[in-house]
Protein backbone atom coordinates (compact mmCIF):
# COMPACT_ATOMS: atom_id res chain seq x y z
CA UNK A 1 0.00 0.00 0.00
CA UNK A 2 1.27 3.38 -0.88
CA UNK A 3 1.08 6.10 1.74
CA UNK A 4 -0.35 9.37 0.30
CA UNK A 5 1.24 11.39 3.12
CA UNK A 6 4.72 10.48 1.83
CA UNK A 7 4.06 12.35 -1.41
CA UNK A 8 2.88 15.42 0.47
CA UNK A 9 5.95 15.36 2.71
CA UNK A 10 8.21 14.93 -0.29
CA UNK A 11 6.55 17.91 -1.99
CA UNK A 12 7.02 20.05 1.11
CA UNK A 13 10.70 19.06 1.45
CA UNK A 14 11.29 19.81 -2.24
CA UNK A 15 9.64 23.20 -1.84
CA UNK A 16 11.79 24.05 1.23
CA UNK A 17 14.96 23.02 -0.50
CA UNK A 18 14.42 24.34 -4.02
CA UNK A 19 11.76 26.99 -3.39
CA UNK A 20 9.45 25.61 -6.20
CA UNK A 21 6.78 22.92 -6.40
CA UNK A 22 7.75 19.41 -7.38
CA UNK A 23 6.78 18.49 -10.96
CA UNK A 24 7.47 14.81 -11.75
CA UNK A 25 8.63 13.62 -15.10
CA UNK A 26 6.30 10.89 -16.39
CA UNK A 27 7.94 8.10 -18.21
CA UNK A 28 6.19 5.79 -20.73
CA UNK A 29 6.95 2.31 -19.54
CA UNK A 30 5.09 -0.86 -20.44
CA UNK A 31 2.60 -2.34 -17.97
CA UNK A 32 4.57 -5.50 -17.31
CA UNK A 33 7.66 -3.45 -16.37
CA UNK A 34 5.65 -1.47 -13.85
CA UNK A 35 4.29 -4.56 -12.20
CA UNK A 36 7.69 -6.24 -12.09
CA UNK A 37 9.35 -3.20 -10.43
CA UNK A 38 7.02 -2.99 -7.39
CA UNK A 39 9.66 -4.40 -5.12
CA UNK A 40 12.23 -1.97 -6.40
CA UNK A 41 9.76 0.85 -5.77
CA UNK A 42 9.31 -0.33 -2.19
CA UNK A 43 13.02 -0.43 -1.73
CA UNK A 44 13.30 3.08 -3.15
CA UNK A 45 10.51 4.30 -0.87
CA UNK A 46 12.30 2.87 2.15
CA UNK A 47 15.50 4.59 1.12
CA UNK A 48 13.50 7.73 0.50
CA UNK A 49 12.01 7.62 4.02
CA UNK A 50 15.50 7.26 5.49
CA UNK A 51 16.75 10.15 3.37
CA UNK A 52 13.69 12.13 4.44
CA UNK A 53 14.55 11.63 8.10
CA UNK A 54 18.11 12.73 7.45
CA UNK A 55 16.94 15.79 5.55
CA UNK A 56 14.49 16.63 8.35
CA UNK A 57 17.31 16.48 10.93
CA UNK A 58 19.40 18.70 8.68
CA UNK A 59 16.51 21.14 8.35
CA UNK A 60 16.02 21.20 12.12
CA UNK A 61 19.70 21.95 12.69
CA UNK A 62 19.44 24.66 10.02
CA UNK A 63 16.42 26.17 11.77
CA UNK A 64 18.26 26.10 15.10
CA UNK A 65 21.21 27.86 13.49
CA UNK A 66 18.85 30.43 11.98
CA UNK A 67 17.29 31.04 15.42
CA UNK A 68 20.74 31.47 16.99
CA UNK A 69 21.77 33.84 14.23
CA UNK A 70 18.57 35.89 14.67
CA UNK A 71 19.27 36.08 18.45
CA UNK A 72 22.83 37.21 17.77
CA UNK A 73 21.51 39.77 15.27
CA UNK A 74 19.08 41.11 17.87
CA UNK A 75 21.91 41.35 20.40
CA UNK A 76 24.09 43.11 17.85
CA UNK A 77 21.23 45.52 17.08
CA UNK A 78 20.82 46.25 20.81
CA UNK A 79 24.58 46.78 21.12
CA UNK A 80 24.50 49.06 18.07
CA UNK A 81 21.67 51.00 19.70
CA UNK A 82 23.71 51.42 22.86
CA UNK A 83 26.73 52.50 20.81
CA UNK A 84 24.55 55.01 18.97
CA UNK A 85 23.32 56.37 22.30
CA UNK A 86 26.89 56.64 23.59
CA UNK A 87 27.93 58.26 20.32
CA UNK A 88 25.03 60.73 20.60
CA UNK A 89 25.97 61.58 24.19
CA UNK A 90 29.63 61.99 23.25
CA UNK A 91 28.66 64.10 20.27
CA UNK A 92 26.53 66.35 22.48
CA UNK A 93 29.41 66.66 24.95
CA UNK A 94 31.82 67.56 22.14
CA UNK A 95 29.37 70.13 20.80
CA UNK A 96 28.98 71.62 24.28
CA UNK A 97 32.76 71.69 24.74
CA UNK A 98 33.20 73.33 21.30
CA UNK A 99 30.59 75.94 22.24
CA UNK A 100 32.40 76.62 25.52
CA UNK A 101 35.69 76.89 23.66
CA UNK A 102 34.12 79.26 21.14
CA UNK A 103 32.71 81.42 23.96
CA UNK A 104 36.08 81.44 25.66
CA UNK A 105 37.76 82.39 22.37
CA UNK A 106 35.31 85.30 21.93
CA UNK A 107 36.03 86.47 25.47
CA UNK A 108 39.79 86.21 24.89
CA UNK A 109 39.47 88.14 21.63
CA UNK A 110 37.57 90.89 23.42
CA UNK A 111 40.20 90.99 26.16
CA UNK A 112 42.97 91.10 23.54
CA UNK A 113 41.23 93.98 21.72
CA UNK A 114 40.91 95.94 24.97
CA UNK A 115 44.55 95.21 25.79
CA UNK A 116 45.64 96.36 22.30
CA UNK A 117 43.64 99.57 22.71
CA UNK A 118 45.21 100.24 26.11
CA UNK A 119 48.62 99.42 24.65
CA UNK A 120 48.18 101.99 21.88
CA UNK A 121 47.14 104.59 24.46
CA UNK A 122 50.20 103.84 26.56
CA UNK A 123 52.46 104.09 23.48
CA UNK A 124 51.01 107.53 22.65
CA UNK A 125 51.52 108.70 26.23
CA UNK A 126 55.08 107.40 26.22
CA UNK A 127 55.79 109.26 22.95
CA UNK A 128 54.52 112.50 24.47
CA UNK A 129 56.65 111.95 27.57
CA UNK A 130 59.69 111.24 25.40
CA UNK A 131 59.18 114.45 23.40
CA UNK A 132 58.86 116.45 26.60
CA UNK A 133 61.96 114.85 28.07
CA UNK A 134 63.92 115.61 24.86
CA UNK A 135 63.01 119.28 24.98
CA UNK A 136 63.86 119.45 28.69
CA UNK A 137 67.21 117.72 28.06
CA UNK A 138 68.05 120.21 25.30
CA UNK A 139 67.24 123.16 27.59
CA UNK A 140 69.31 121.63 30.37
CA UNK A 141 72.20 121.08 27.96
CA UNK A 142 72.14 124.77 27.02
CA UNK A 143 72.12 125.80 30.70
CA UNK A 144 74.96 123.37 31.44
CA UNK A 145 77.07 124.88 28.67
CA UNK A 146 76.54 128.34 30.11
CA UNK A 147 77.44 127.20 33.59
CA UNK A 148 80.58 125.42 32.29
CA UNK A 149 81.76 128.70 30.68
CA UNK A 150 81.15 130.62 33.92
CA UNK A 151 82.98 127.89 35.88
CA UNK A 152 86.04 128.13 33.63
CA UNK A 153 86.21 131.91 34.09
CA UNK A 154 85.85 131.62 37.86
CA UNK A 155 88.63 128.98 37.90
CA UNK A 156 90.98 131.34 36.06
CA UNK A 157 90.29 134.14 38.55
CA UNK A 158 90.68 131.78 41.52
CA UNK A 159 94.06 130.60 40.21
CA UNK A 160 95.29 134.18 40.03
CA UNK A 161 94.08 134.91 43.58
CA UNK A 162 95.69 131.68 44.82
CA UNK A 163 99.07 132.63 43.36
CA UNK A 164 98.98 136.00 45.14
CA UNK A 165 97.86 134.44 48.41
CA UNK A 166 100.58 131.77 48.22
CA UNK A 167 103.29 134.41 47.89
CA UNK A 168 101.92 136.27 50.92
CA UNK A 169 101.64 133.02 52.91
CA UNK A 170 105.25 132.12 52.23
CA UNK A 171 106.49 135.38 53.67
CA UNK A 172 104.21 135.07 56.70
CA UNK A 173 105.27 131.44 57.28
CA UNK A 174 108.95 132.31 57.30
CA UNK A 175 108.34 134.90 60.01
CA UNK A 176 106.12 132.59 62.06
CA UNK A 177 108.68 129.77 61.88
CA UNK A 178 111.34 131.95 63.38
CA UNK A 179 109.05 133.05 66.25
CA UNK A 180 107.94 129.42 66.93
CA UNK A 181 111.51 128.16 67.06
CA UNK A 182 112.33 130.62 69.76
CA UNK A 183 109.20 129.77 71.71
CA UNK A 184 109.90 126.06 71.44
CA UNK A 185 113.36 126.43 72.88
CA UNK A 186 112.00 128.32 75.93
CA UNK A 187 109.12 125.87 76.42
CA UNK A 188 111.38 122.84 76.19
CA UNK A 189 113.65 124.11 78.90
CA UNK A 190 110.69 124.90 81.17
CA UNK A 191 109.01 121.52 80.48
CA UNK A 192 112.19 119.64 81.28
CA UNK A 193 112.46 121.42 84.61
CA UNK A 194 108.80 120.73 85.51
CA UNK A 195 109.08 117.09 84.40
CA UNK A 196 112.12 116.50 86.60
CA UNK A 197 110.31 117.97 89.59
CA UNK A 198 107.13 115.88 88.97
CA UNK A 199 109.10 112.65 88.41
CA UNK A 200 110.95 113.16 91.67
CA UNK A 201 107.78 113.75 93.67
CA UNK A 202 105.99 110.76 92.03
CA UNK A 203 108.93 108.45 92.71
CA UNK A 204 108.94 109.47 96.37
CA UNK A 205 105.16 108.85 96.65
CA UNK A 206 105.41 105.46 94.91
CA UNK A 207 108.25 104.35 97.15
CA UNK A 208 106.20 105.19 100.27
CA UNK A 209 103.10 103.40 98.86
CA UNK A 210 105.14 100.32 97.93
CA UNK A 211 106.52 100.13 101.45
CA UNK A 212 103.00 100.23 102.86
CA UNK A 213 101.75 97.56 100.43
CA UNK A 214 104.74 95.36 101.15
CA UNK A 215 104.00 95.44 104.85
CA UNK A 216 100.31 94.67 104.23
CA UNK A 217 101.15 91.75 101.93
CA UNK A 218 103.51 90.27 104.48
CA UNK A 219 100.78 90.44 107.14
CA UNK A 220 98.24 88.83 104.72
CA UNK A 221 100.66 86.05 103.83
CA UNK A 222 101.25 85.32 107.51
CA UNK A 223 97.48 85.17 108.21
CA UNK A 224 96.86 82.99 105.13
CA UNK A 225 99.57 80.59 106.23
CA UNK A 226 98.02 80.24 109.65
CA UNK A 227 94.51 79.78 108.14
CA UNK A 228 95.80 77.22 105.62
CA UNK A 229 97.52 75.23 108.33
CA UNK A 230 94.32 75.24 110.41
CA UNK A 231 92.14 74.20 107.44
CA UNK A 232 94.62 71.51 106.44
CA UNK A 233 94.51 70.15 109.96
CA UNK A 234 90.69 70.18 109.90
CA UNK A 235 90.54 68.47 106.46
CA UNK A 236 93.00 65.84 107.66
CA UNK A 237 90.82 65.18 110.70
CA UNK A 238 87.67 64.99 108.48
CA UNK A 239 89.43 62.63 106.11
CA UNK A 240 90.47 60.38 108.99
CA UNK A 241 86.91 60.41 110.32
CA UNK A 242 85.40 59.63 106.91
CA UNK A 243 87.91 56.89 106.28
CA UNK A 244 87.11 55.32 109.62
CA UNK A 245 83.37 55.61 108.86
CA UNK A 246 83.87 54.05 105.42
CA UNK A 247 85.95 51.30 106.94
CA UNK A 248 83.24 50.57 109.52
CA UNK A 249 80.57 50.63 106.80
CA UNK A 250 82.64 48.29 104.70
CA UNK A 251 83.05 45.93 107.60
CA UNK A 252 79.32 46.14 108.35
CA UNK A 253 78.51 45.45 104.68
CA UNK A 254 80.87 42.49 104.71
CA UNK A 255 79.20 41.20 107.89
CA UNK A 256 75.74 41.75 106.37
CA UNK A 257 76.79 40.02 103.19
CA UNK A 258 78.16 37.06 105.16
CA UNK A 259 74.99 37.00 107.25
CA UNK A 260 72.79 37.11 104.14
CA UNK A 261 74.80 34.31 102.58
CA UNK A 262 74.46 32.21 105.72
CA UNK A 263 70.74 32.98 105.91
CA UNK A 264 70.30 32.15 102.26
CA UNK A 265 72.24 28.93 102.75
CA UNK A 266 70.14 28.14 105.80
CA UNK A 267 66.96 28.86 103.84
CA UNK A 268 68.08 26.67 100.97
CA UNK A 269 69.07 23.88 103.38
CA UNK A 270 65.74 24.22 105.16
CA UNK A 271 63.83 24.17 101.89
CA UNK A 272 65.83 21.14 100.75
CA UNK A 273 65.13 19.39 104.05
CA UNK A 274 61.43 20.16 103.80
CA UNK A 275 61.38 18.97 100.20
CA UNK A 276 63.23 15.80 101.27
CA UNK A 277 60.72 15.32 104.08
CA UNK A 278 57.85 15.73 101.62
CA UNK A 279 59.52 13.30 99.23
CA UNK A 280 60.14 10.78 102.06
CA UNK A 281 56.57 11.17 103.23
CA UNK A 282 55.28 10.66 99.70
CA UNK A 283 57.50 7.61 99.19
CA UNK A 284 56.40 6.18 102.55
CA UNK A 285 52.77 6.80 101.70
CA UNK A 286 53.24 5.18 98.31
CA UNK A 287 54.93 2.19 99.99
CA UNK A 288 52.06 1.87 102.48
CA UNK A 289 49.52 2.10 99.67
CA UNK A 290 51.47 -0.46 97.65
CA UNK A 291 51.73 -2.85 100.63
CA UNK A 292 48.03 -2.40 101.48
CA UNK A 293 47.04 -3.12 97.88
CA UNK A 294 49.29 -6.20 97.81
CA UNK A 295 47.89 -7.38 101.14
CA UNK A 296 44.29 -6.84 99.96
CA UNK A 297 45.04 -8.75 96.73
CA UNK A 298 46.50 -11.68 98.71
CA UNK A 299 43.48 -11.74 101.05
CA UNK A 300 41.06 -11.68 98.13
CA UNK A 301 42.96 -14.51 96.40
CA UNK A 302 42.87 -16.63 99.60
CA UNK A 303 39.14 -15.96 100.02
CA UNK A 304 38.52 -16.92 96.38
CA UNK A 305 40.44 -20.18 96.88
CA UNK A 306 38.47 -21.00 100.02
CA UNK A 307 35.21 -20.19 98.24
CA UNK A 308 36.08 -22.34 95.20
CA UNK A 309 37.19 -25.35 97.29
CA UNK A 310 34.21 -25.07 99.64
CA UNK A 311 36.36 -24.87 102.78
CA UNK A 312 34.69 -23.28 105.79
CA UNK A 313 36.68 -20.73 107.66
CA UNK A 314 37.30 -21.46 111.39
CA UNK A 315 34.73 -19.93 113.70
CA UNK A 316 35.59 -18.15 116.92
CA UNK A 317 33.84 -19.57 119.99
CA UNK A 318 32.70 -16.94 122.40
CA UNK A 319 30.60 -17.21 125.57
CA UNK A 320 26.87 -16.56 125.60
CA UNK A 321 25.96 -12.92 125.80
CA UNK A 322 29.02 -11.80 123.92
CA UNK A 323 29.27 -11.19 120.18
CA UNK A 324 31.84 -12.72 117.91
CA UNK A 325 34.87 -10.59 117.04
CA UNK A 326 35.09 -11.95 113.51
CA UNK A 327 32.41 -9.79 111.97
CA UNK A 328 33.65 -6.51 113.47
CA UNK A 329 37.12 -7.26 112.14
CA UNK A 330 35.70 -7.66 108.63
CA UNK A 331 33.66 -4.51 109.07
CA UNK A 332 36.76 -2.69 110.26
CA UNK A 333 38.64 -3.84 107.17
CA UNK A 334 35.81 -2.67 104.94
CA UNK A 335 35.70 0.71 106.68
CA UNK A 336 39.50 1.00 106.44
CA UNK A 337 39.42 0.12 102.73
CA UNK A 338 36.60 2.62 102.09
CA UNK A 339 38.41 5.32 104.07
CA UNK A 340 41.65 4.57 102.24
CA UNK A 341 39.90 4.75 98.88
CA UNK A 342 38.22 7.98 99.92
CA UNK A 343 41.57 9.45 100.96
CA UNK A 344 43.10 8.45 97.62
CA UNK A 345 40.17 10.01 95.75
CA UNK A 346 40.33 13.14 97.89
CA UNK A 347 44.07 13.35 97.27
CA UNK A 348 43.56 13.02 93.53
CA UNK A 349 40.70 15.54 93.63
CA UNK A 350 42.81 17.95 95.69
CA UNK A 351 45.71 17.64 93.26
CA UNK A 352 43.35 18.25 90.34
CA UNK A 353 41.85 21.32 92.05
CA UNK A 354 45.35 22.65 92.89
CA UNK A 355 46.51 22.09 89.31
CA UNK A 356 43.34 23.72 87.93
CA UNK A 357 43.65 26.78 90.19
CA UNK A 358 47.36 27.23 89.51
CA UNK A 359 47.02 27.28 85.71
CA UNK A 360 46.14 30.27 83.55
CA UNK A 361 42.75 29.89 81.85
CA UNK A 362 42.28 31.48 78.41
CA UNK A 363 39.03 32.39 76.64
CA UNK A 364 39.10 33.56 73.00
CA UNK A 365 37.78 37.11 72.51
CA UNK A 366 38.90 38.18 69.01
CA UNK A 367 41.34 37.31 66.23
CA UNK A 368 43.04 39.01 63.27
CA UNK A 369 44.62 37.56 60.14
CA UNK A 370 48.26 38.59 59.71
CA UNK A 371 49.54 39.45 56.24
CA UNK A 372 53.15 39.06 57.42
CA UNK A 373 55.23 36.26 55.91
CA UNK A 374 57.50 35.70 58.90
CA UNK A 375 56.22 37.35 62.12
CA UNK A 376 58.55 37.02 65.11
CA UNK A 377 57.03 38.85 68.11
CA UNK A 378 54.04 40.83 69.43
CA UNK A 379 53.86 43.45 72.18
CA UNK A 380 50.80 45.39 73.39
CA UNK A 381 50.87 48.96 74.71
CA UNK A 382 48.39 51.80 75.17
CA UNK A 383 49.16 53.06 71.64
CA UNK A 384 48.15 49.79 69.98
CA UNK A 385 49.50 46.44 68.76
CA UNK A 386 53.23 46.23 67.92
CA UNK A 387 54.27 43.48 65.49
CA UNK A 388 57.77 42.56 64.32
CA UNK A 389 58.59 40.80 61.07
CA UNK A 390 61.94 39.28 60.08
CA UNK A 391 62.03 41.17 56.77
CA UNK A 392 59.71 44.19 57.15
CA UNK A 393 60.78 45.45 60.59
CA UNK A 394 58.34 46.70 63.27
CA UNK A 395 54.82 48.05 62.70
CA UNK A 396 52.15 49.58 64.97
CA UNK A 397 48.50 48.56 64.44
CA UNK A 398 45.25 49.97 65.81
CA UNK A 399 43.45 47.81 68.39
CA UNK A 400 39.99 48.57 66.96
CA UNK A 401 40.28 48.05 63.19
CA UNK A 402 43.87 46.68 62.97
CA UNK A 403 44.85 49.57 60.67
CA UNK A 404 48.53 50.42 60.12
CA UNK A 405 49.58 53.49 62.18
CA UNK A 406 53.38 53.58 62.10
CA UNK A 407 56.48 51.66 60.96
CA UNK A 408 59.92 51.48 62.60
CA UNK A 409 62.83 50.03 60.64
CA UNK A 410 66.59 50.08 60.87
CA UNK A 411 68.86 52.45 58.98
CA UNK A 412 69.45 51.97 55.26
CA UNK A 413 73.17 51.39 55.84
CA UNK A 414 72.81 48.47 58.28
CA UNK A 415 70.56 45.36 58.14
CA UNK A 416 67.77 45.04 60.73
CA UNK A 417 66.31 41.65 61.73
CA UNK A 418 64.07 41.90 64.84
CA UNK A 419 63.39 38.51 66.47
CA UNK A 420 62.00 39.64 69.86
CA UNK A 421 60.77 42.87 71.45
CA UNK A 422 58.93 44.44 74.40
CA UNK A 423 57.35 47.91 74.57
CA UNK A 424 57.63 49.95 77.78
CA UNK A 425 55.99 53.38 77.63
CA UNK A 426 57.78 55.65 75.15
CA UNK A 427 60.55 53.20 74.20
CA UNK A 428 60.94 49.66 72.94
CA UNK A 429 63.64 47.02 73.50
CA UNK A 430 64.39 44.98 70.36
CA UNK A 431 66.64 41.95 69.78
CA UNK A 432 68.41 42.60 66.45
CA UNK A 433 69.78 39.28 65.17
CA UNK A 434 71.50 40.94 62.19
CA UNK A 435 74.10 42.52 64.51
CA UNK A 436 73.57 40.41 67.69
CA UNK A 437 72.59 43.30 69.92
CA UNK A 438 69.74 44.65 72.07
CA UNK A 439 68.53 48.04 70.80
CA UNK A 440 66.48 50.58 72.76
CA UNK A 441 64.44 52.75 70.38
CA UNK A 442 61.88 55.52 70.60
CA UNK A 443 58.33 54.51 69.72
CA UNK A 444 57.57 57.72 67.79
CA UNK A 445 60.52 58.20 65.42
CA UNK A 446 62.49 54.99 65.94
CA UNK A 447 65.69 56.76 67.05
CA UNK A 448 68.28 54.56 68.77
CA UNK A 449 68.64 55.46 72.46
CA UNK A 450 70.92 52.60 73.57
CA UNK A 451 72.71 49.61 72.07
CA UNK A 452 73.90 46.58 74.08
CA UNK A 453 75.76 43.49 72.85
CA UNK A 454 74.21 40.06 73.44
CA UNK A 455 75.84 37.85 76.10
CA UNK A 456 76.12 34.79 73.86
CA UNK A 457 76.04 33.65 70.22
CA UNK A 458 72.41 32.39 70.29
CA UNK A 459 70.24 35.01 72.06
CA UNK A 460 66.51 34.34 72.40
CA UNK A 461 63.84 36.72 73.64
CA UNK A 462 64.16 39.93 75.64
CA UNK A 463 62.22 41.39 78.59
CA UNK A 464 62.35 44.45 80.86
CA UNK A 465 61.01 44.35 84.43
CA UNK A 466 61.08 48.13 84.94
CA UNK A 467 64.60 48.14 86.41
CA UNK A 468 66.74 45.51 84.68
CA UNK A 469 67.01 44.06 81.19
CA UNK A 470 66.66 40.24 80.93
CA UNK A 471 67.60 37.87 78.10
CA UNK A 472 68.09 34.17 77.39
CA UNK A 473 70.84 32.45 75.40
CA UNK A 474 70.22 28.99 73.93
CA UNK A 475 73.93 28.18 73.65
CA UNK A 476 74.53 28.47 77.42
CA UNK A 477 70.97 27.76 78.59
CA UNK A 478 71.12 30.67 81.08
CA UNK A 479 68.92 33.68 81.81
CA UNK A 480 70.99 36.87 82.03
CA UNK A 481 70.19 39.99 84.06
CA UNK A 482 71.87 43.25 83.08
CA UNK A 483 72.75 46.04 85.51
CA UNK A 484 70.65 49.17 85.87
CA UNK A 485 72.71 50.68 83.06
CA UNK A 486 72.75 47.84 80.47
CA UNK A 487 75.85 49.24 78.76
CA UNK A 488 77.89 48.34 81.88
CA UNK A 489 77.33 44.64 81.24
CA UNK A 490 75.74 41.60 82.85
CA UNK A 491 74.98 41.67 86.57
CA UNK A 492 74.04 38.02 87.17
CA UNK A 493 73.03 34.80 85.38
CA UNK A 494 70.48 32.14 86.40
CA UNK A 495 69.49 28.65 85.32
CA UNK A 496 65.89 27.47 84.88
CA UNK A 497 65.41 23.72 85.05
CA UNK A 498 63.80 22.19 81.98
CA UNK A 499 64.22 25.28 79.75
CA UNK A 500 66.40 24.86 76.66
CA UNK A 501 64.75 27.18 74.13
CA UNK A 502 62.49 30.22 74.74
CA UNK A 503 60.17 31.62 72.09
CA UNK A 504 58.99 34.58 74.21
CA UNK A 505 59.10 35.81 77.81
CA UNK A 506 57.69 38.72 79.81
CA UNK A 507 57.78 39.95 83.40
CA UNK A 508 54.51 40.66 85.19
CA UNK A 509 55.29 41.90 88.67
CA UNK A 510 57.52 39.33 90.38
CA UNK A 511 56.36 36.54 88.03
CA UNK A 512 58.22 35.60 84.84
CA UNK A 513 56.00 34.21 82.05
CA UNK A 514 57.90 31.95 79.62
CA UNK A 515 56.68 30.47 76.32
CA UNK A 516 58.96 27.63 75.29
CA UNK A 517 59.59 26.26 71.82
CA UNK A 518 57.68 23.14 72.93
CA UNK A 519 54.46 25.29 73.15
CA UNK A 520 54.43 25.11 76.97
CA UNK A 521 53.45 28.26 78.86
CA UNK A 522 55.19 28.34 82.24
CA UNK A 523 55.19 30.79 85.16
CA UNK A 524 58.12 31.23 87.54
CA UNK A 525 58.44 33.13 90.80
CA UNK A 526 61.82 34.76 91.44
CA UNK A 527 62.81 34.35 95.12
CA UNK A 528 66.20 34.12 96.80
CA UNK A 529 67.98 34.51 93.42
CA UNK A 530 66.29 31.39 92.06
CA UNK A 531 63.30 30.64 89.81
CA UNK A 532 60.54 28.45 91.27
CA UNK A 533 57.92 27.03 88.88
CA UNK A 534 54.30 27.96 89.66
CA UNK A 535 52.42 26.37 86.75
CA UNK A 536 52.96 24.69 83.39
CA UNK A 537 50.45 24.09 80.60
CA UNK A 538 50.61 23.23 76.92
CA UNK A 539 48.99 25.58 74.37
CA UNK A 540 47.44 24.57 71.08
CA UNK A 541 48.26 25.76 67.54
CA UNK A 542 51.99 26.15 68.40
CA UNK A 543 52.19 29.88 69.29
CA UNK A 544 55.45 31.69 68.52
CA UNK A 545 55.05 34.78 70.75
CA UNK A 546 52.77 36.28 73.41
CA UNK A 547 52.14 39.59 75.19
CA UNK A 548 50.31 40.40 78.45
CA UNK A 549 48.15 43.50 78.90
CA UNK A 550 45.80 43.98 81.88
CA UNK A 551 43.58 40.85 82.01
CA UNK A 552 44.23 39.67 78.44
CA UNK A 553 46.83 37.63 76.55
CA UNK A 554 47.74 38.16 72.86
CA UNK A 555 49.18 35.18 70.96
CA UNK A 556 50.60 34.78 67.43
CA UNK A 557 49.42 31.34 66.26
CA UNK A 558 49.31 29.43 63.00
CA UNK A 559 45.95 29.24 61.26
CA UNK A 560 44.02 26.03 60.63
CA UNK A 561 45.54 25.49 57.17
CA UNK A 562 49.09 25.90 58.58
CA UNK A 563 49.93 28.30 55.72
CA UNK A 564 49.67 31.61 57.58
CA UNK A 565 49.49 33.29 60.98
CA UNK A 566 46.75 34.80 63.13
CA UNK A 567 46.83 37.19 66.10
CA UNK A 568 44.37 36.08 68.80
CA UNK A 569 43.25 37.89 71.93
CA UNK A 570 42.35 35.75 74.97
CA UNK A 571 40.77 36.72 78.27
CA UNK A 572 43.09 35.76 81.15
CA UNK A 573 41.78 34.29 84.41
CA UNK A 574 43.91 32.95 87.29
CA UNK A 575 42.42 31.69 90.56
CA UNK A 576 43.93 32.23 93.98
CA UNK A 577 45.76 35.16 95.50
CA UNK A 578 48.55 35.13 92.90
CA UNK A 579 46.96 36.93 89.98
CA UNK A 580 50.13 37.56 88.02
Question: Mind telling me the CATH class of the domain at 362-573?
Answer: Mainly Beta
- CATH fold assignment of the domain at 362-573: Neuraminidase
Helical proportion, percent range: 55-70%
Rounded to an integer in angstroms, the radius of gyration calculated over CA atoms is: 61 Å
Gap between N and C termini:
108 Å
Largest beta-sheet details: 4 strands, antiparallel
Structural class determined from secondary elements: alpha+beta
DSSP summary, beta strand count: 20
Basic shape: flat
Question: Which strand order do you get reading across the main beta sheet?
Answer: 1-20-19-18
Mean pLDDT: 80
Write up this protein.
The protein has 580 residues and is α+β, with helices and mostly antiparallel strands. Among the domains are: 328-358; 362-573, TolB, C-terminal domain (Neuraminidase, 6 Propeller). 56% of the residues lie in helices and 22% in strands. The protein contains 4 helices and 20 strands. The chain has helices at 4-18, 31-36, 38-309, 326-358, and strands at residues 361-370, 375-380, 385-389, 393-397, 404-408, 418-424, 427-432, 437-442, 448-453, 459-464, 469-473, 478-482, 490-494, 502-508, 511-516, 520-527, 530-538, 545-549, 552-558, 565-573. It has a 4-stranded antiparallel beta sheet, with no helix packed on it. A 4-stranded antiparallel beta sheet has the order 2-3-4-5, with no helix packed on it. The protein starts with a helix and ends in a 7-residue tail after the last strand.
Amino acid sequence: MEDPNIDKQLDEMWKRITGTNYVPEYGHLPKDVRESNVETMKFLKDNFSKAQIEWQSLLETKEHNIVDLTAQLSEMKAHLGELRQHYQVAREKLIAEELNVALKLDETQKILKSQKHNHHKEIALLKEVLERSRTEIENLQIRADKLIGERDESRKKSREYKEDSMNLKDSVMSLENKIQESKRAVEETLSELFAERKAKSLAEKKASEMDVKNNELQADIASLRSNWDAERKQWRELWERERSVWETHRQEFAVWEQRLRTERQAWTDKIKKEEQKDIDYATGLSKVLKESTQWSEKVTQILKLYALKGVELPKVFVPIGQKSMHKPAGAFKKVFAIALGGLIMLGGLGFWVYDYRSKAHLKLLSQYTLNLKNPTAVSISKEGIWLSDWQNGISLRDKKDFALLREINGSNKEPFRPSAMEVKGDYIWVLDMAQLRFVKKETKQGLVMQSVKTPGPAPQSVSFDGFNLWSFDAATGLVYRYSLDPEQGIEASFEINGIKNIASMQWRGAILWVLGSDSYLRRYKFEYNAFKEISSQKLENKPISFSLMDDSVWLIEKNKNQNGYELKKYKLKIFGSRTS
